[in-house]
Sequence to fold (430 residues):
Amino acid sequence: MTSTPTAPRTRKSPAERRDEIERAARELALEQGLAALTLRAVAARAGVVPGLVAHYVTGMDDLVAATFSAIVADELAEVHALVRREPAVARRIGALVDTVLHGGRDDVTLVWVQGWALGPANAALAAAVREQMDAWHTMIVELISDGVDAGAFVVDDAHAAAWHLLAMIDGLNAHSLVRWHDAPDRRDMTLRVVAALLGAETAAIASPITTEETA
Amino acid sequence: MTSTPTAPRTRKSPAERRDEIERAARELALEQGLAALTLRAVAARAGVVPGLVAHYVTGMDDLVAATFSAIVADELAEVHALVRREPAVARRIGALVDTVLHGGRDDVTLVWVQGWALGPANAALAAAVREQMDAWHTMIVELISDGVDAGAFVVDDAHAAAWHLLAMIDGLNAHSLVRWHDAPDRRDMTLRVVAALLGAETAAIASPITTEETA
DNA sequence: TCGGCTATTGATCGAATGATCAATATGCGG
DNA sequence: CCGCATATTGATCATTCGATCAATAGCCGA
Fold:
């Protein structure tokens, strides 16, 4: 019955400790969802006493909201960078679709879905969700505008089209969270639909590399 | 400090009482979401002591799952009936889109989103979610197949197309839960995209009645 | 009319949550 | 090397949750 060798209390700079706590919260949310962000769970993850977490945070609601923002903002930056690697402006939309379909981002998707679900009970989180949705929307509008400028897309209202595309992405992601990524030809179909949304040819928005065909 | 006039204990048939409890749960879930389905909250709503609810239920997880199923199955039946009122088979898809876009079903949408979000922590709920998604999928497959048979749609894989359409619907709904239904021309755009998905003319899948144009 | 079956109550348990605070000890500045 | 500002601890509170159970009382049948 050796008591858990109490780690000697270490004193760190507030900034550093705050960082550790925020990182612990982020990891925990990615592994188990936003609902797992408990005062005690975060503390344990950070190797610290619950009271200390409370000391560094306005309230758990705020920590949840901040963690949501951090995770989702990271995702957006990552996707943004990935998409920009495609030199042909019009095909960046296709790259976006590919990333979303094969991204293996179920952890982030769970965070999104929980953000929507917990919003009504957490005003700060709700605001964060709207903010991040706006950020995604802004990126997609940019992608679409570039395509229009390049003469590849014909879009009346890029604003509205971007919302529609984002809704499609979110819906597909939410489904892949529940259903085992079944449909083998989601890519082709999605590309065709997106092309229609943007008034473009399917071949114009994506590289012709077809998904691996399972015989 | 008059004690709340304790209502005289009334004894009802198990079936009736069970009904009341299930109805209370359903109402509560529609008003405040699945997360509000507390032993005590449901009991209060049903005008009954918490212990009684526990007596009639295997566990709260099961009640949550059952309530989810009841609400969503009702929604499906309602939408199904609504869609069937459109005599032209091909245009039933358009009717579906209209219902989803103007349905005012945010309460049910919240239940859906919470179903996805709570699934990882509630196996029974997760199973119910998959079951109801399958039910929706089945209905949409039927709609698509009818259109194909009528020669209005050209679809390789109705199965996959149905999943895609459902994902789109869910995404649009989830968004309308968070964002104030802004886009005025969502209908036209959605119809165009769905037409592309089904290999049909936009005019073929929906009655030409355009949504009210806000000058 | 009345007894008994059982629906219903009220009280209570144990676990988990967010939050607060006095006491402690750590590491930096002088 | 030492003293002090404060980061950190440990203990504790008030809530809320799901769940259990003996005791009570309503209603149906005899």
